[in-house]
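FAQ: What does a ligand-bound record look like?

Like this one, built around flavin-adenine dinucleotide:
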Amino acid sequence: MTRPSIIVAGAGIIGASIAFNLAQKGYAVTLIDRTAPASGASFGNAGGIVNNSCVPTSTPGIVFDVAKMLTRPHSPFSLRPGYLLKALPWLIEFLNQSRQHRVDQNADQLHALTRHAADDWLKLVGETALTRYVQSVGWLKVYSSTSSFANTGFTRQLMDRLQVPFDVLGAADIRRLEPALSPDFTHGLFQSDALHITNPGAMVHEMTNLMLEYGGIYKKMCVEQISMSKNAVTVSNQSESLTADKLVIATGAYTQPLAEMVGDKVTLVAERGYHMMFPRTTASLLSRPVVNGDSSFVLSPMETGMRMTSQVEISGVDDPPDYQRIRHLTRLARSMLPDLDTQEESVWMGCRPSLPDSLPVISPSSVSNNIIYAFGHQHLGMTLGPVTAFLVEQMLAGEKTKTDLHPYRINRFKSALS
Ligand SMILES: Cc1cc2nc3c(=O)[nH]c(=O)nc-3n(C[C@H](O)[C@H](O)[C@H](O)COP(=O)(O)OP(=O)(O)OC[C@H]3O[C@@H](n4cnc5c(N)ncnc54)[C@H](O)[C@@H]3O)c2cc1C
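The answer part, i.e. the structure of the complex:
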């Protein structure tokens, strides 16, 4: 059987994983990006491959948490006032998803994807040079008080229900894992089956380069128009066009206009997040990413230095960044890791593509099976790149997918919004 030719739009971790896998399997694949590989959220994340992650963002009581946080300066969650009207349909649906039965369903459906995350990462990188970025070090969250740890009760209940393996740690256990952390941390949650990517941006670049070695093509091109005939899809802009049998749209938080061109309405926002890099020498202070559960930020040791990531800012993808949102955490980073040299090397902002139910869209378009969506992976896009890649491959081959994809269909909010 001849394999269809494929265009993959968007060279973040989702598009790069899809294109790399398809090229390995012998498909004629062209990966395109309007800027460069890893120019979106995939560049600057914390690199956590949080296997078995199952907690959606919208949970019971979130309405009170959000209201509280919106009134606190520098809280981990913010909404740009000028963006409120635009975000309103998403926010309404987000609150709707906090009802217990929806939360349980969303947790099941998130877990149905993430439980394959570590295995699928190891399968995708195989024996290639990409292995040098993958560490099997787990995912650690730490808390400095009983009351702060008590807030994880709901998370632990969900994890228990889904039989997600995790360990509850005391002060001595935390110290054994991460001796440089402040002794203030007395409680911890540890998921030992998580992986860590030590340079997410370089990982996406190298994946793209390896795809070329398997015969794939990379092209810098901005998709401004999409047209379809019965057997082909064309993407174009004012100066060029490209046609293939199938198109995969993996443009993350920037997908709304492309979906509208195809004829689909999506309830997508950018949950913008920030990072700050500390000097290269600081990376050796930790062996794995550590979440500060009291103050909602992560210190993640990267090849290039210690990376602090944080913040959810609901705002337009093109609104200017507000780097104060990450800079104000420097003091807390130093008290979490007393030896940390907090000299700022760089700051960065990226857009997490998020739907109200915390589930991605992995689905044919509603108008043609020749267009497949793969976006909306919110806080877990790095985790879910290879999972998504293997599912897209099965869809293209017309095979039964390993996970039932109905929950991730493009039009699942249609009735809620019409
Ligand atoms: C601070 C922070 C920390 C995070 N930490 C983690 C973590 O530890 N673990 C985890 O799993 N996830 C994490 N995430 C989430 C993760 O980074 C995202 O879910 C993931 O990067 C999304 O990947 P993507 O490929 O869908 O989108 P992106 O990486 O944003 O890529 C989309 C690409 O599409 C291109 N594009 C857009 N429009 C067009 C067009 N019209 N034509 C052509 N190309 C186009 C863009 O240039 C871009 O390169 C974090 C995110 C942030 C912000």
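Follow-up question: can I read anything off the structure? Yes, for example: The chain has one domain: 6-417.
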